[in-house]
Amino acid sequence: MTATMTDAPPPAAPKAEGAAGKRSGRSLGQILMIVAGALLLVAAVRVITGADQLTSEGQVGAALGLAVPIGLAGLAGLWSERAGVVNIGLEGMMILGTFGAGWVGWQTNPWLGLLCGIGFGVLGGLVHAVATITFGVDHIVSGVAVNLLALGATQYLAKLFFAEGKPAEAGGNPKQSPPVDSLPHVTVPGLSDALQTVQNHHWFLVSDLAGIVGGLITDLSVVTILAVVLFVGSWWLLWRTPFGLRLRSCGENPIAAESLGVNVYQYKYMAVAVSGGLAGLGGAFLALVTSHTYLEGQTGGRGYIGLAAMIFGNWRPGGLAMGAGLFGYSDALQLRNGGTTVHALLLLLVVLLVVLAGWKLYRSAVWQGAISLIVGGLVLAWYLLTDEVPSDFVGATPYVVTLLVLSLSAQRLRMPKADGMRYRKGQGK
After folding, report:
1. Which residue, among 425, 354, 337, 318, has the nearest Cα to 388 in the 3D structure?
2. CB burial readout 74-107, b (16+ within 10 A) else e
3. Which of 14, 76, 218, 325 has its CA 20 to 30 A from that of 317?
């Protein structure tokens, strides 16, 4: 990092680093092959099992709606941790976002509610930044404190503002705000209906593609579109600009960054403030798009799940988006069609475990390959001997999928080197 920043002019440094990162990761061709293989596999499972919900427009649309708040929470964690600050307080910042959006949204309009949700999240991020950056409090302790403070503060404020008077007459109570008007939704006219027609024919792969594309362009919230823009913009800003190089240097080696003139405190504060705003936006999505009201406890641990998605994505926006999409997809499966559709997912799991076993055996990891084969055999027996998955397990599906994916990907992870470490100005002198 030091040599790169010293020997190359600032505008060229991000390109060099980005190129190196690109060489070390998968190429675009490899990614497209993986996506095509996954699509073929899911299409084959749909045909074999008859579970047409696997790639239906409704399934994909529901998965996207469930993935957005998780993805925004994960993106918030990525900004913070790339600057070297562990942000366990994402859940609390999302809670603040839900309250701010519901409180202001019902009094004015949902657009101002959206801005207020982001602002409340920024406020929570700044509290975390002051504690960890200025006062050197342990990052985990500070994050847990933010979660507890946010939960207690919003519960108190909800009782204060929603329990009596005009808010109560409009439908509010101590645990929720009055209803908020809806934000606009976008549907591509003509194309959505045509894709729906193709999907209903249930052709192999063609109907699957139609269902997936249809779910991505039908009844799409403007906040979902904004989230996609934020993902692309974050990737460009953090990996293709001098600003991003300096910010990431604070998470890799803040002492070296300071020696080259980077104001480490300033970049850390900016990163954690942006982190809080993104988490607040995720909370605002839940209040304004998912439920149209603030509800106590509506985040449901999505801040922590967002952190898991960020880790699965190896602290990169693309992998993070895949992790959030995976959780949203599995969550939508168990919500939309319960045990029957999740039962079809078992067959997909068998194939993945067999592929994993073959790869482990090829890499001479005999024990891991054998265990994967044994588990795959047990899952196959479960699939053949039953017609649907018990309801108790159906509700746990997204969490089981998340744990499984994290355990399989853990060996390839690389967090920022200075992530979670205390830093003091002048430390390297």
Report:
1. 337
2. bbbbbbbbbbbbbbbbbbbbbbbbbbbbbbbbbb
3. 218
* Residue type present at position 385: L
pLDDT digits (tens, 9 = 90+) for 129-181: 999 999 999 999 999 999 999 999 999 999 999 988 898 988 889 999 999 99
Averaged pLDDT, 411-429:
79
368 burial via Cβ count (<10 Å: 0-12, 13-18, 19+): middle
Residues 6+ apart with CB under 8 A from 7: none
Nearest to 308 by CA among 88, 140, 117, 127: 88
- Asked whether the beta carbons of 260 and 91 are under 8 A apart, the reply is no
**pLDDT of 252-297, one tens digit each?**
999 999 999 999 999 999 999 999 999 999 999 999 999 899 999 9
Tokens of 87: 């942000």
**Residue 296's pLDDT is what?**
93
The span from the CA of 119 to the CA of 104, in Å, is 11
Q: Answer yes or no: are the C-beta atoms of 249 and 262 closer than 8 Å.
A: yes
Is 188 in contact with 217 (CB distance < 8 Å)?
yes
Spatial separation of the C-alpha atoms in residues 57 and 36, rounded to whole Å: 18
